Structure formats: structure tokens, C-alpha cells
Amino acid sequence: MEKFVIVGGNRLKGSIKANGSKNATLPILAATLLTGGVSTVHQVPRLRDVLVMQELLTYLGARVTFEGNTMTVDGSNVQPQEISEDLMRKMRASNLVLGPLLSRFGHVKISHPGGCNIGSRPMNLHYKGLNALGATIKEKFGYILADTSQLTGTVIHFDVPSVGATENMMMAGVLAEGTTVLRNAAKEPEIVDLQNFLNAMGAKIVGAGTDVIRIEGVKELDSVTHTVIPDRIEAGTHMIAGAITQGDVTVTNVIPEHLDPVIYKLMEAGVQVDVGDDWVRVQSTGQLKAVDIKTMPYPGFPTDMQSQMMALLTVAEGTSVITETIFENRFKHVPEFRRMGADIYLEGHTAVVKGVKRLTGACVEATDLRAGAALILAALAGEDGTVLSNIEHIDRGYERIEMKYNSLGARIIRVNS
Known about the structure:
The chain is α+β, with helices and mostly antiparallel strands and 417 residues long. The chain has 2 domains: 2-19 and 230-416, UDP-n-acetylglucosamine1-carboxyvinyl-transferase, Chain, CATH 3.65.10.10; 22-227, Alpha-beta prism (UDP-n-acetylglucosamine1-carboxyvinyl-transferase, Chain), CATH 3.65.10. It has 14 helices and 23 strands. It has helices spanning 22-31, 48-59, 85-88, 98-105, 124-132, 163-173, 189-201, 232-244, 260-268, 306-313, 334-339, 369-381, 392-395, 401-406; strands at residues 2-7, 13-17, 38-42, 63-67, 70-74, 107-111, 136-140, 143-147, 155-157, 179-183, 204-206, 212-216, 224-227, 248-252, 272-275, 279-283, 293-294, 319-323, 343-347, 350-354, 363-365, 385-389, 411-416. The longest helix has 13 residues, at 189-201. Pathway: Cell wall biogenesis; peptidoglycan biosynthesis. Its main location: cytoplasm.
């Protein structure tokens, strides 16, 4: 087990580059299962979740190479083999193989997926959509069994705009017979990137980025080359790193409009934010101010940035109110912040944060991916040293984050416990 030892108090300054989006990469890699051709994907981040997806693709028979940040997937020998619990439980996004395997082969047997314990993420919307397309879904002994003789296009209305269900139905619908229409679809930028990838393969999809997506089924898909969009959550985390340390940080390789909710909340908190074509500069020299946050589906404030923003608000002047509407267990970082001297009161899905002058070092642990990132930010702004354990969660979504922050003047050491 590895830990981070973090000495706070340094002002971060300089330029840092965001990687390709983890949340766009995972469905795109799952979509490579739709074709027997060769898919080449650029700007793939070297993250634990990505390596698990590589392992999953290889298990299914794909020939995968991963050099630098380019992954090549040859799907000519893929077979819909039973996927064990050990493999599926390593990552929540493993459920994204359900749609493409069912669409291409007509049969899937997978264990229930795992991932961060941040709240209930049921499969019912996935099942509802696949049933509407003509699949039979059964659950037995912890496995999901899906069968179909031919998926047929239809209209699917999601009860809530689920990102995973939208992605799975897009991948299931591309080879279905006829037209599939997804209503109340998720609108995240990662959905648009998946549409662009699938269309480059020969699919016919329009509407991604809106709440209605239309898919015209095609007979087959072909080889493709694609570059993944930048990671808006990683970029937002780096922006807050600059702000919380009273620093001056430029984040490159970004799509600024994907960061609008974070940009506006930072500006509201008293941070200067300058925006270019593919970069964002954050400068913070004055007293941070309290702001209220409510997480919402895109284009609202992202739940994946809630804990990082809370870290910032623990040292802001005044009282902030944070309301979490997406996941019910996404305040597990609060007790860890309290260990560092934060003043936070929880009431159901709402956190009341009273800013303190300074956080202090402590022994804390990452309870999930984004909570771990938030604790790094808090430690950077804190006094003395912080020891952060369970950093394997952080490695799921940030590629060597300690090296990036050390290049800006931070003091973070990765050690074996």
C-alpha cells in the first residue's frame, strides 16, 4: 500500500497540462468491441481504470497495445466470454461492455460491476433500455445475462439523465435494426465524444449534447482513429489547486466551455480566472469568499468537483452551503476534512461549511477517487505535514498527480507504507 506525505504551505505557480478524459476514454474503449477492425485512440490517460479496461478487452480476445498515450485495439478475435466477478468489480465502468457485446454478438454474461462506493448506481435504466430494444435480461447468482436474436430500434425515455445508461444505449443502438431515439439523455461532453468516435466508425448518430439522441442502425462498423477530449474534472482540480494555495496556475489542453460551472464559482469566490482558446489561468492572492454549490447533471456544477470545491471553501471567509443531488454517499470526505480542522456540519444531502483561517496537517484517508484529490488540495493549503492513505483511489483518475504538483512547487512524496 502506498501513501502520500504532503507538506503544505507552498504557493503553486506555473503551467500544468490536463490529460485526456478518463470518463470519455472508458466508453470509447468499450465501443471498440463493436467492430472486428482496428481502433486507434490517442490521448488515453495512463490510469488504473484505463488499465483495468485494457485487461477486460484483452480477456475478451482483443489484441491491445498501449504505447505512450496511444492505445490500439484489434477486435477481430473478440468473443463474448463470461466475465468474472474479480474483473468486473475492479471498475464501475466495466458495465459499459454490456451494450456493445450484446449489439455485436447477441449474448452477454457479466458479473455486477464495482467501483467507488459513493452511492447507488443501479442498472435498472440499462435494463429498461435494452429490454425496449428487444433484449431479455436476467440476474442470476450475481451475474447479468442478456440475450437477443436482433436488437430493434425504438424510443427510450430515461427516468433520469444517466450518463452510463445513455452510453450503453448508444452502443447498443448503432447496430440495431431501424431507428433508436433516446429521450432525456445525458448531455455531458463525454457523450458527445462517444458520438464522434462511433460516427467515425460509420455509425449514424445525431443529437449528443442535447437531451434527444437519434441513432440510425447500420450493418457494421469499421476501423477508426480518434483523439479523446481533455479531462474537465482533472483540469478543474488543477484550477482549485492554484486557487487554494493562493497561487498562479495555468492549465493547458482544456476545452474552456466544459469548465464553465467551475470557472464561474471560482470567480464568485474571488479568484481571478483568465480564459484562452485551450487554456485557463487561475490567480488567487486575496481572501477567498464563501459560495453556495448545488451539484447537477451537465451543464450544472459536476458532482465530481464537489469535494474539491469543498476543500477550497473550508478556508474561505464566511459560510458556504453545498447540496449534493447526484450521489447519496458523496460526503465521506467530510470526517477527513474535520481531522484537518475544517468546520463542516452535515444535514442529509447538505453540507454547511464555515471557513477557517488555516487547515492543519493530519493522517487522513481517501475514501474514493475525488475525495482523495480533494484531500490533496486541502493538504497543500494546510500547515505542517499530512499523510494521505488509500491513494490507489486517486491513481484511478489522476496520472502521477504528485509529479505534476511538485513541478509547480508543491512538496508531495509517494511512499510505501
